[in-house]
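User: Fold both of these, please.

Assistant: Here is the first one.
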Amino acid sequence: MLRPADLALQHTRRKFFGKAATGIGGVALASLLNPELFAGDVGSSATGNGVLGASHFPARAKRVIYMSMNGAPSQLDLFDYKPNLHEHFDKDLPESIRNGQRLSTMTSGQTRFPVAPSTMKFNQCGQSGAWLCEHLPHLATVVDDLAIVRSVHTEAINHDPACTYIYTGAQQPGRPSIGAWVSYGLGSGNKDLPAFVVLHSTWTGQKSAQAVFSRLWGSGFLPSENQGVSFRSQGDPVLYLTNPPGVTSATRRKMLDALQELNEQEYAEQLDPEINARIAQYEMAYRMQSSVPDLTHFAEESKATLEMYGPEVGTPGTFASNCLLARRMVERDVKFVQIFHRGWDQHGNLPGELPNQCHDIDQGAAALIKDLKQRGMLDDTLVVWGGEFGRTVYCQGALTKTNYGRDHHPRCFAWWMTGGGIKGGVVHGETDDFSYNIVKDPVHIHDLNATILHCMGIDHTRLTYRFQGRDFRLTDVEGQVVKGVLA
């Protein structure tokens, strides 16, 4: 509880107007905060406990599994096949292609920009005939379920602002993440698990990989209950999930009841909505003590299922294990699961490191798609995969026939999507002969996020939150749904 002197210090002009709302102005404020007025008209296609109450229109996807490849996978070596580049080996990238576009500080001082063709072999796969890197053999078996978007682009050229941008809609920290927006809008389908969960995967690339920060799954200015809950790969999935020695579940319950009474008294004085969010989070943590151990225990999975995900599925924290865990989460109606996999930042030795990175994710990602499909869940589960930007066609550092590195490239990169609301067997967008510029169907990252929300039944222009005098949204003031990938 605050002392009277401390309480007086908080009675600023902003605090005065905030508390004035509890009087006659409360009626007006309540009407403004009505979800239907606050987020636009809502439909009646689904129900939930988010501010929307229901999605704006019938949702094709009830949940999202978002695979974040941190470090920026090379589109040239995975999805954007350019066989004619071998004719340009070690030749300078034509200025007409680069056209003065800015470079990162890692290569801006180079005197040459020699073209580095991919050393990877590509195979034409499935009925769609999409070209995939040889190091994605499992993903090739489900390629006809995928919509591969080869024309994604962004303005950010360095990792941290680029990740912040694609996940929150702004390069500057402080905005809510996409998972937080979904949680805020649609709520959770399971009272015993969070609406938004984050999983971190081990990787076989450089251990000094680009860091990820909690703001990438944070709630920003949205209520803190909408932030992602980050599961750990070792020990308890969530810190302090297990009661300490001598503390029983009954004791824990009494403590939480007493704490709730104190918080309710504090809320009566302060009227701070974060206090109610804190109460809700304490209760969620208590329920997770029972729900999470069952969730993370794979003993009930069949031998065939475990074999489908591969030998690494039994090692907690691997990408394969996290893919199976994600399936178990969406099976329990968790709305948004984000899986991070780091180590894709290959400025050097790309031919040596990229195959290992592909091995990390290939079987698990393909198995997840097959698993969801055989359970009848792929039709209403959206799965997306991609990084924060792409890689340059020119080499960073020394170039040989067998070795090269690639710098950051925001002008074009590749993502894939599958599941609820997405048309399978589609390759969307084209780049030039050097995979440097987009020549057909560009997809900005705001367009990508607008499409994800669209599949969830959300009009991205109508899910907003007023903060500091402005209505904010995930896609800022831009974004168009990519209709070419919709079913």
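And the second sequence with its predicted structure:
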Amino acid sequence: MSPDPMHDQMSITRRHFFGRSAAGLGGLALAAMLPRPALAGPDPAALARMLGPHFAPRAKRIIYLFQSGGPSQVDLFDYKPRLNKEHGQQLPDSVRHGQRLTGMSANQSSIPLAGSPFKFRQWGGSGAWVSELLPRTASIADELCIVRSMWTEAINHDPAITFFQTGSQIAGRPSMGAWLSYGLGSDNDNLPAFVVLVSAGQGGQPLYARLWGSGFLDSRYQGVQFRSGKEPVLYLSSPDGVCGSGRRAMLDKLADLNRLQFERELDPEIESRIAQYELAYRMQTSVPDVTDLAAEPDEVFELYGDDARKPGTYAANCLLARRLAERGVRFIQLYHQGWDQHGNLAGAIRGQCQETDQASAALVTDLKRRGLLDDTLVVWGGEFGRTSYCQGKLSPDEFGRDHHPRCFTMWMAGGGVKPGLTYGHTDDYGYNLADESGAPINPTKDHDTPGAVHVHDLQATMLHLLGIDHERLNYLYQGRRFRLTDVHGHVKRELLA
């Protein structure tokens, strides 16, 4: 059973009431007159959450490979030969329909179509179209559930990435990992339920700790960032001269003081502080063990690539993600920056793919051969896609692509999704979502449009695979019940195995 902050809050309410009551029968009489929910413990939604998953889960954990910046779908997964045929021609008004462009290309006097400079071919028994930039990912095409019909309302990086991570474009909500930590807890008492890994040395759009924060949930549910180097978790190691028994004695005394403060102030964050101190103490042993890749055999490093031997690289973090998954970490969020190719797309995206392609495929392969892929959901994608028209001057070597929220591609593997599936359609220009006939569709008028997958649909589907009804995992805050999917979201059952 996972910790329940709502139960803590109800307990505090009862203590607070009896502690402040005048005494005896008068207090009891007043208690009897109060509304029953105030004294009866968790409400039905909280009670349902306390009992574990709402239904049998297909997955136990998620590894989310977030490609920050917005990978270009028309250069990686969404093959559009018409763009090459009409390369250099203007984007037709009949396709754009006056849709808003970002400030970076809205003032261009010309909006020429830009065909992909990379070759595509079909792979595996599924026949998935994948670019030459991703040969290792293409080799596992039959394991992938490729979603080409993702869409979002956000058109700029910060609101778009915040939307994917928290379900809102406005900062301050709990992140997905925090929701899962709150709802399901951890399978390993010696490691956090939610771990964050960020590729070292990558430029690009900034990442903020609030992206893995707990928002209005208890702070114990926020993500814990693991870094490369001698100290993977900051301030975890004991100071010089402090032995294990001394550390234990200090924590015991500190816990006693915190409990005294809690009885006086009734602040639930004090109990969270105690819990986090205790977890940090246990992590002094567990973190060095899980982050030490030296014990991995050479063939594992060959699978993930040479970069896996370099701490902090994308490849090393993918390998570390597998080790964390083996040890029961519930949600592993890996961020890789640099996919924001407004210029020099041909060279920049090639470099990004070289850094990520082999390790992404290796992670799926490694999980499968260890029997972990069936109950581990792997998710790959960014905050939006890129335009099918050119930003800046159209030239073979220097052209770029602007942000494009109207249609883009992500993929998933394992964890109960349908392998070998390519889902959804876009028009011949890769500009709008389309139905099976190729006719454009506009899901902004109806979030339940068949074939379209909104951000909240993806989140609802991910929660469903973990056995969670996204409408029932909620939290009462400032008079309103909040959830990851806000007031939208549909489970896309077509994606489920």
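Confidence is low (pLDDT under 50) at residues 1-50.
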